[in-house]
């Protein structure tokens, strides 16, 4: 085929089917396609866009046959189309098969097998182009979101810097006043200011102490008002654990008891649960831990694993605080957190706010906070959990004792 005919073929070829136009139509962007090819593209896509330049049309265009282009195609076919019976596939290596179609742009002819492969190649290229455009769009949206967050953070930083600068200015003014008093020779003024400062300081300290004492009294009363009557569930107790008749105490007995191996019972971890679970509201209970060298306390969700080795963490349904090695207090998070306590708890309070996703531990005697699990999401019943840990040849034989409360009406 001559170069002039090849150039003409490029102008008259549909970029979708790679054949000479059949019933050619034009898109608003100026590109030409077979009417059936373009309709098929749009029927199989959510958007109406040009298969060549990818321009998207808000409304599906009304396609009309380009009669002038169709006549030009007919003239070209009459002049240059060869008989298909004379054409063999240019891609076949050994035995040449009869060609079904010929590409007038690359001037190659294709059998049925290689024609399908060429069409798949074209479709893959179009899919890749769509994917690249989608990635670029997502990247642009991500960059925009990052810029907005950065602006917000910069604004917060500026506000914090302004507050700190104001505090620094006030401290500098106070330092200047004190420096002036340090070098004054007016002793009467110094005494007056000193007395004033001392009185103000004493008043401030007393006010803070009074407020703190009131808050602690209110907090203690508030927690006690939320107290629940917890008794131990013998059906959940590990065979090494011995419960008191009233269900308020548990010790490690060093001798494995013959108990039914029901689904509720722990068979590896030396734990026991409370009988009643809680699926809403707030509740509080206290446990005496004095004279023990090891223990674990907290709450657990109903569906925890009770058979075999158990991982104790919030992700596995445990919100637990523990004492190990006599003086190491650990919060069983992921990873575990070693706590620094100034006073060794003799009695530990456990507070749960189901809706807030909060589990807090307190030193009851010193009225001090020990640790809190915050931002949790509870979807099941929560049960109080107790483990006196191993007896350790009598060095850890003291029981865990659940406190009973006298409600204040």
Automatic annotation (TrEMBL):
It comes from the Eukaryota. The keyword Zinc applies. This is E3 ubiquitin-protein ligase TRIM39-like. Residues 135-181 form a coiled coil. CDD domains: SPRY_PRY_C-I_1. Pfam families: PRY, SPRY, TRIM_CC, zf-RING_UBOX. It comes from Sinocyclocheilus grahami. Residues 14-54 form the RING-type domain. SUPFAM superfamilies: Concanavalin A-like lectins/glucanases, RING/U-box. The lineage of its organism: Eukaryota, Metazoa, Chordata, Craniata, Vertebrata. Keywords: Coiled coil, Metal-binding, Zinc, Zinc-finger. Signal peptide: none annotated. Residues 210-405 form the B30.2/SPRY domain.
């Amino acid at each position: 085929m001559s170069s002039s005919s090849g150039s003409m073929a490029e102008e008259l070829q549909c970029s979708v089917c790679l054949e000479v136009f059949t019933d050619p139509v034009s898109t608003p962007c100026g590109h030409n396609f077979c009417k059936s090819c373009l309709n098929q593209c749009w029927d199989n896509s959510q958007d109406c866009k040009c298969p060549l330049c990818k321009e998207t049309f808000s409304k599906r265009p009304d396609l009309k046959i380009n009669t002038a282009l169709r006549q030009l195609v007919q003239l070209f076919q009459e002049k240059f189309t060869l008989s298909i019976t004379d054409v063999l596939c240019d891609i076949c290596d050994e035995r040449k098969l009869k060609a079904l179609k010929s590409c007038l742009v690359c001037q190659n002819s294709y059998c049925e097998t290689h024609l399908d492969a060429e069409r798949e190649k074209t479709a893959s290229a179009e899919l890749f182009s769509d994917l690249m455009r989608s990635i670029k769009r997502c990247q642009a949206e991500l960059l925009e979101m990052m810029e907005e967050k950065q602006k917000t953070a910069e604004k917060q930083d500026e506000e914090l810097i302004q507050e700190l600068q104001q505090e620094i200015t006030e401290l500098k003014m106070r330092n200047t006043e004190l420096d002036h008093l340090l070098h004054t020779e007016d002793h009467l003024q110094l005494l007056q200011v000193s007395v004033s400062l001392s009185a103000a300081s004493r008043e401030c300290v007393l006010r803070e102490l009074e407020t703190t004492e009131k808050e602690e009294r209110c907090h203690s009363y508030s927690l006690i008002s939320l107290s629940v009557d917890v008794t131990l569930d013998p059906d959940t107790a590990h065979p090494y654990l011995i419960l008191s008749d009233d269900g308020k105490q548990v010790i490690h007995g060093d001798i494995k008891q013959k108990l039914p191996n029901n689904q509720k019972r722990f068979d590896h971890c030396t734990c026991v649960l409370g009988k009643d679970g809680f699926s809403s509201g707030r509740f509080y209970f206290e446990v005496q831990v004095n004279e023990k060298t090891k223990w674990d306390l907290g709450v657990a969700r109903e569906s925890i694993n009770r058979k075999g080795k158990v991982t104790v963490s919030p992700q596995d349904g445990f919100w637990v605080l523990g004492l190990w090695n006599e003086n190491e207090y650990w919060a069983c998070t992921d990873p575990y957190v070693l706590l620094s306590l100034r006073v060794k708890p003799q009695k530990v309070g456990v507070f749960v706010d189901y809706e807030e996703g909060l589990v807090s531990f307190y030193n009851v005697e010193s009225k001090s906070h020990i640790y809190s699990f915050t931002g949790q999401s509870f979807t099941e019943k929560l049960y109080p959990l107790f483990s006196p840990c191993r007896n350790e040849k009598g060095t850890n034989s003291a029981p865990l004792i659940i406190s009973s409360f006298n409600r204040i009406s």
